[in-house]
Amino acid sequence: MTESPIIFDRLLQRQRRSRAAALPANFLLDHVAGELADRLSVVLRRFDVGVDLGTPGDAVRRSLRRLGAGMIVGADVIARGKPFVVADEEALPFRDSSLDLVVSGLALHFANDLPGVLAQIRRALKPDSLFLAALLGGETLTELRQAFAEAESEIEDGASPRVAPFADLRQLGALLQRAGFALPVTDVERVTARYSSAFDLMRDLRRMGAANTLVARRRVPLRRTTLMQMADIYARRFADADGRIRTTFDIVWLSGWAPHPNQQQPLRPGSAKARLADALGTREISTGEKAGH
Hints:
Layout: H1 10-21, H2 27-41, E1 49-53, H3 59-67, E2 71-76, E3 84-86, E4 99-105, H4 114-124, E5 125-137, H5 142-155, H6 169-178, E6 182-195, H7 198-207, H8 224-238, E7 245-257, H9 276-280
Parallel strand pairs: 1-2, 1-4, 2-3, 4-5
Antiparallel strand pairs: 5-7, 6-7
Helix pairs in contact: 2-3, 5-8
């Protein structure tokens, strides 16, 4: 079996998340918590025992409690409130087929072995139970990535990795299928936040426990001149007319169900009883036939 590459320093990530746990939640976590509750509210199902996996803070659990969900157990490397299980999302302690629901907000993009995490979640769910998660992907923090790369290229000996690599929508959808989820669905929500400066953005990232934990990062302190140059480049390239800078967050939503025989199944190829051309009121053109002939 091919081992997953070690992208993130998990010990450093634990330390960063521990510090973030003592800070107030930021707007993005609150947004994800509200959206997650909205998405669950349309599912006509009661979830008696669920797990909130790795989400910084307790915003998701508070939203689910207001929704009237059953017992939602927090699970993270940092204990926060009750009920809670201290666990690493890459080594889940839950029995197979023991959970009705697993949710996660802005955490799983930091897993080194995301395919393995998804497979463990699917096994821990009871048949016909739900997984719903939001993680950062796509073009998230592209402005910060570009500003840092340009500043370090100008001042230091080449650029150091500063912003984590993020998976895109298609990659994450394929991982859901690979993990064995039924009825997998992915969609992306772009949130453009505005800050007074790059320093305010970086403070917000620390509040999410999302500061740089890449294994390949440069191990010497960031020079002040480089940091100031980065902030200046960011302001010149990505500021609006009022001087506030733009920051892209692509929130990728994943959902899937643990398989069950009674779930809706896709039709077999060729089993349709009506033609698309008839429904659209057009003439079907066979392969090789030219339109208009």
